[in-house]
Amino acid sequence: MNWPSINEIRMFTPLPTGYRWDLLRLEEIDSAISFFKTWFPSISAGMGSSFMDESFYKEKAVGADRSTTTILALVVRHSDEIVAIATWEKIDGADVIFGRVGAVARPHRQSSLAVAAQELGEKMGRHMGAGLIYGMATTRTPYMQQALERAGYKAVGIMPGFDLEETEPGTLLRIYEVIYVKQLAPADAFLVPLKQNFTPTVARLYAEIFEES
Q: Looking at the domain that runs over 6-211, which CATH code has it been given?
């Protein structure tokens, strides 16, 4: 799968007047790290900590061919200032998109930029031929859970100890995270599982998640 071009991205999900999508530039890596430290400091531990590492961006996100990088790192500019960052990871072979970390500067949080990023992730995934887009939401607050549910994602499980968070200075604890997914491929692309292949535990779980929808 290849990421869409920046012009395609701008057409997929227009932003409010005065805002525009752009690719994170090589010379802006330090700015991105500072941005996350300011507006999403909890990612300094656990899976998100990669986004505090300059070498991670150089290896995964800002290669010569931005259509094939593992990570797509987008910024939202307002008067040339970075006011939001959104990132996704593509998993080739499985053809799946994983929503990674994102943040919006507090003065711009009433501009629906986070909602636009969720919409963009879905549109990019369909354009790229991805079958699924998924993300993780912390159980420490309900806000990300609410945002994903409003965007039409389905909670399909809870991973105990999936990630680490600094609950207070110097204290790292493993946290429970909710797995949220949205199917992008048409229904006939999915092999619906047969109940005869379920254990009783899995049958109850499957019914709870899928059969009531």
A: 3.40.630.30
